[in-house]
Amino acid sequence: MDTSHKTETTLVRAISNQNWSLVNSILTKDSQLVNDCPNGKSTLCSAVKEAPEELLLKMLEAASEKTLNILDEDGRSLLHLCARRSLDKCIKLVLKKSKLHVNLQDGWVSRTPLQVCARSDATFRQQLHIVVELICNGADISLKDADNRNAADLYWFNDCMMYDKNSRIEEKKQIMHILKGEVPRQILVSGYYAVKIYFKALEQGGVQYQRCSLTVVGQARAGKTSLVKKLTGQRFNFKEKETDGIVTTVLCDINETDGQWKLDTSKEIGLFLGVNTLMCFYINGLVSYTMS
User: Fold this and answer.
1) If both were cysteines, with which of 96, 146, 152, 188 could 110 make a disulfide (CB 3.0 to 4.6 Å apart)?
2) Last residue in a domain, options 146, 180, 203
3) What are residue 120's phi and psi, to 5 degrees?
4) CA end-to-end span of the chain, whole Å?
5) Range 101-133 burial, b when 16+ CB lie within 10 A, else e
6) Residue 139 belongs to domain with CATH number
7) Does residue 11 surpass a pLDDT of 60?
8) How far is CA 147 from CA 109, 150, 154, in A?
9) Residue 3 lies inside a defined structural domain of this protein
């Protein structure tokens, strides 16, 4: 339904006047009015700047994908606008319903939704939810705005006044770790509560993670398998068969005393990280290698 030619509607006037009970009443009668664009302006973009979150969720549920992808006059998407107000539930719904480009930079200061979130005034729970949701949906933490600042840079200057004052310093450190890419993606994709458990575990103690990966490449029959066997203390085989494809990533343990490498078959990680994974977490000098 193309309504871009219409002048201001009753719904738009109700939104402008912040008469949310009237907005709710109008949408209850005809929820598709949320897809109107009178005078070329998105009704939904107008609402998301001020409307209560529960009402916005109702509007987002009724919105078409085309409506969800409309930008406002400053080139900001719904993700930008929701991040500005720290509407974590709305962001999750928009990402679920739309193919909106999560790394879109606005036409104002070239900021992504993640960068807008980093500067927003939010509670710790809201900010953590949004940061995790955006990164898990492809947000690039390295992108910089017109002032050459990425999300971590912007967050550094956020006073986070809505955080609990008794835990603000520690909570800010946690989100900074995420924005700097220091939290394993396996943790982030598991969701908000997994991230909380991860940080709680770090507070209670742990061991230093050492990370290393070794990729052995070379021409066919060049001796890659034999080299790895030699490094890991295995017996040389004069009749070694040619390796077909990529060898599953495995771990070995380095003896800190004599520097010898020992294959650790009990910790094979190919089963849960996949044969193309080159990075692994390891403790006490465990190393991964992949051959191709």
Assistant:
1) 146
2) 203
3) -75, 155
4) 54
5) ebebbbeeeebbbbbbbbbbebebbbbbbbbbb
6) 1.25.40.20
7) yes
8) 8, 9, 10
9) no
Q: Is the pLDDT of residue 276 over 60?
A: no
17 within some domain: yes
Rounded CA-CA distance 56/221 in Å is 62
Q: Is the pLDDT of residue 188 over 50?
A: yes
Mean local confidence (pLDDT), 80-102 = 94
Spatial distance between the Cα atoms of 158 and 119, rounded to a whole number of angstroms: 6
> Do 59 and 34 meet the contact criterion of CB atoms below 8 Å apart?
yes
The count of other CB atoms within 10 Å of the CB of residue 165 is: 9
Residue matched to tokens 């009443």: 25
Say yes or no: 72 and 190 in one domain.
yes
Confidence of residue 62 (pLDDT cuts 50, 70, 90): very high
Does residue 241 share a domain with residue 138?
no
28 shares its domain with 143: yes
Closest to 56 (Cα-Cα) out of 3, 16, 20: 20
CA–CA separation, 67 and 278 (whole Å): 41
Measured distance CA(48)–CA(70) in Å, rounded: 12
Residue 235 lies in domain: 213-291
Give the pLDDT band of residue 277 (cuts 50, 70, 90).
Answer: very low
- CA–CA dist 26, 257 (Å, integer): 75
**CA–CA gap between residue 77 and residue 11 (Å, rounded):** 21
User: Residue 22, class by beta-carbon neighbours within 10 Å (0-12 exposed, 13-18 middle, 19+ buried)?
Assistant: middle
Q: Is residue 23 part of a domain?
A: yes
pLDDT for 283: 32
User: Is the pTM higher than 0.70?
Assistant: no
Select from 142, 169, 203 the last residue of a domain: 203
The whole-number pLDDT of residue 261 equals 74
When divided into structural domains, the chain yields a total of 2
